Amino acid sequence: MHTSGRSIVMDLDKFLWRQFRELTVTELYAVLRLRSEVFVVEQQCIYSDLDGKDEESRHLIASRAGTLLGYLRLQPANRTCEFARIGRVVVDPKARGQRLGCRLVAEAIEEARRLFGPVPVKVSAQSHLEGFYRQFGFLRTSADYTDDGIVHCDMVRSEQA
Predict the structure, then answer these.
(1) Whose CA is closest to 126, among 58, 51, 45, 66?
(2) How far apart are CA 33 and CA 113, in angstroms?
(3) Fewer CB within 10 Å, N side or C side of the chain?
(4) 5-26: per-residue pLDDT in tens?
(5) Is 67 helix (H, G, I), strand (E, B) or coil?
(6) 3-state secondary structure of 97
(7) Tell me, what CATH number does 40's domain have?
């Protein structure tokens, strides 16, 4: 996990936003592979990851030496939804415990502000991660519900938070 005394997360050489059409084939493959490895295999959750929302989203990739370590997608607020949405937040198991998830979420909040102005940002959080999102000003807005076999809750962060 450490290279020359520094964490692999601190040695990131890429922390980039991409539109779907800007993702290289290699980046897209790495994103889909990491999402599958964590959400389907590790969490033992059989679901359709390809939900038609990737094309409209911005994608944040964090990598080192060509290896994807973390990822999330940001969906815009639009005519049908007043919220920007952060989703598919994932950190490679080898990079966990180094606050990469925090860096990803903080960057997503800033990107939402840059792109969409002071719109609320929503996340469908796994309920055991409620405290993680609360540190960024997200507040629970729903009761627990089960999504693909995992307990979730909706959380929203407004600019007043």
Answers:
(1) 45
(2) 29
(3) N
(4) 444 445 555 689 999 999 999 9
(5) strand
(6) coil
(7) 3.40.630.30
